[in-house]
Amino acid sequence: MLHATTAPAQKRHALRESLATGELLRFPGAMNPLSARLIAEHGFEGVYVSGAVLSADLGLPDIGLTTLTEVATRAGQIARMSDLPTLVDADTGFGEPMNVARTVQSLEDAGLSGCHIEDQVNPKRCGHLEGKQVVEAETAVRRIRAAVSARRDENFLIMARTDVRATDGLDAMIERARAYADAGADAIFPEALRDAAEFEKVSSAVDVPVLANMTEFGKSDLLTTSQLADAGVQIVIYPVTLFRLAMGAAEAGLAEMAAEGTQQALVGQMQTRARLYELVDYAGYAAFDNDIFTSTDPERSTWS
How far, in Å, are 7, 242, 289 from residue 29 at the CA level? Predict the structure, then answer.
């Protein structure tokens, strides 16, 4: 039936092994648990849980209004849906270093394979908007040290996100990235870089994997996987792509229904009932019910 068959510790170990190959790993953002299964079926290497998507799904702007409980719960629901490793946006860690430590352990317990923690002030804002502010380097380093010291599984990936490119320039951001790696960060997430040349410069400057955020309507060029791999990037996320596609289709569909008084013209664009039942493993649950709950075999029935 529909659950991951791989334990969280195995997923984390597999992610570490994949990163050790030096190859580029692709992590589309899941907008809900079921979309994580679609991501797995289409051959991607991992699943990403975006803070922006989680916020928007709750009808909130991405300014740090979500709680650790909301993020850990939703991310855990998504992580359990496939055998792929799942990375999650942990914003600024939901508080001071002690809170960051609790955040990491809560995400471990939820079955995640890793998270990234950023150096913005609270309340944070989308990394591709103007007006961001970052904390002092010492404060950000303490966040990373707290995260690293708190994890119980050494394979849980701690990524340090830095937004300094927008506030102090690329060289200052690279300096921060090195400091975060020295503090124990397993990977660096340089937010809002402009182009392939900037990604290559960052990748060459640090000894840990670099993540690229290929979000639409942002400051970064939408680079291909070949361009990113050539620049030395090892993880690419597409955080809001599925959410934007789904919401765009929903808006268009509602406009059609309002104008025409029927959804008839939209049926061909819809996922069929049969495909939905396949994704949720309807047949597997039915077989389980027939075999276990309603079985008449006294040796197999739970009521015998």
Answer: 21, 7, 33
